[in-house]
Amino acid sequence: LQDKACCLLFDEIPLKESLMYDQSKDIVLGLSDDGNSRTNRMANTALIVAVSGISRRWMQPVAFVVSHDATPALVVRQLLFALIQQLETKGLLVKALVCDQDSNNVSLLKMLVRSFHEPTFFVNGRKMYFLFDTAHLIKVTRNNLKGNKLTIGSEVVDWKHIETMYETTRSADRTSDAPAELLKTKLVKKLRLQHIRKMSSTDMAVKYATQIFSESVSTALLILMAIGELPADAKATAEFVERMDRLFDCLNSSAVKKQNEKMRYAMSDGSEHQSFLEACITWISGWHFGGPRSRQPHAIKGWQITIKAVLLLWIDLKQEFGFSYLLTRRLQLGTLENFLATIRHKLGSKEAPNMCQFMDSFKNFWIKKLFRLATQGKREATGAFLANIEEALAFMPLSSAPALSRSRRHESVCASVQVPLQESTGITCENVVYHITGTLVKDFLNLRPVDCTCHGMLLDKGGGEASSKRDKFFALLKEDGVAECLFSAIAETAEECLNYMKELDRCFNEEIAYIIHCTNICRYLVQVMPKQPDLFCSPACNSKYLSMFCHRRLCWHISFANKNVENRPSRSAAARKISKLSNLSAQIPNVITTDNKVRET
């Protein structure tokens, strides 16, 4: 029974905006898809949901949705409730939801939980608990402390005390024989500048926060205060650091038995965890960052909600499932974040894989996870759990794209349409149309049946006089090597065929904005495209030609959309700095020239 208790972990990963056509399913991948509806906006975020064991250590990703920007809280709620119900039918009972403190997750909390004093909600009459990731909470607390003083009752916790401690220990004279100088050189050897300064690369790393909130830092603060290097009010900072160290150990326990004075062992009936956590709820409720009118961070409520949820969950697990102890590390996002790091590692540590790369890595991890778990101990039970998960999700559709028909053509029109690159007009357009038409006709004729007579109507019978010579410049430049005759790589098409190609392209541009997010997209385009029976020997040949055109034109449209994304100016800080440096380097020659002219004058 204990093995059936599990929790759902969910987190987001950024995606690179990119489209790809899946010919086997006749669908465009890379668009926003929440499982119930699909739009034609490019997805740049993926929300991954994984199920994780509480009594035993195992984790398996079970679902993901992609969206443009963050996934809305309502969509997350619908997805989680659907997964909870499906997992329950296979014997897995979800008892907790674990996530970070993104704004959408805070909105989800308000949507599910009625009172922060009891962070619970019900699904099919079964009580569940909402928790925030402890590692995320301690990082946010450290970041807020860097920018603001923390008032707790009459005491003030100041980050400057930690900065002074670091500077004092690093500036100590290592050649001196004075006891005070020798003592300072022995303190907080693990700390580096990354721990103290505010850096984007380290602000979201857990180890830099936990190494600050540690017993060694608390001891160093007290020692420096005792020898007069720190003022007396640094005692509040030292006590805060020591208490945060114990709180993190309590919510990150991984050992069943107590091994030392640390609280890194499992929570049980006779342990000190419950009384300590109850006291921490009252202690944290007195936190206040900044001045009297400063807006307080969500981390204050987040700590209280998480601690209360852990206490209530422990009672529930003990009474309903017969738990004798609880390892709180299994109520964190660590395993899911390791999975996301594995995806980035497989792609060369890319921060933002595209949709197809993400899906391939997701499937690869799923398969390897199943095979690896099957060789470990208790293979039958673990294998059965994962088999149940696979069966529970087997009937879920891969995509929520609606099947397309003529009657549904105008049912869903998105407000934001991905616009392709501006197509050229005039002589450039005429050359491109001639070359593309010739290539398509040649490939079509190579695949035609033996009894097909379409070549007599599609090809130019006048030896190239029907079309303007200026239309053939691009086709001539595309010739590979010295051919026996000109335009050997393409078919010289008739004027009627060129006009038909222009009509098909116009019709495609009218339709694509409304249907790109739907499935059966090429099949629908073949149905709505204008027919030209005079150019083909049979309706079957006409349909085959249209099918080839729709597939290639859709791929070109996707290529244009992807190039639009690549050419879009980046909004990152690094990109802005590079742009400033480029502008500055471009202005330097002008400044030098002006300066030389002034000197000559």
TrEMBL record:
<dbReference type="InterPro" id="IPR048366">
    <property type="entry name" value="TNP-like_GBD"/>
</dbReference>
<feature type="domain" description="Transposable element P transposase-like RNase H">
    <location>
        <begin position="3"/>
        <end position="112"/>
    </location>
</feature>
<feature type="domain" description="Transposable element P transposase-like GTP-binding insertion">
    <location>
        <begin position="135"/>
        <end position="262"/>
    </location>
</feature>
<dbReference type="InterPro" id="IPR048365">
    <property type="entry name" value="TNP-like_RNaseH_N"/>
</dbReference>
<dbReference type="Pfam" id="PF21788">
    <property type="entry name" value="TNP-like_GBD"/>
</dbReference>
<protein>
    <submittedName>
        <fullName>Putative transposase</fullName>
    </submittedName>
</protein>
<dbReference type="Pfam" id="PF21787">
    <property type="entry name" value="TNP-like_RNaseH_N"/>
</dbReference>
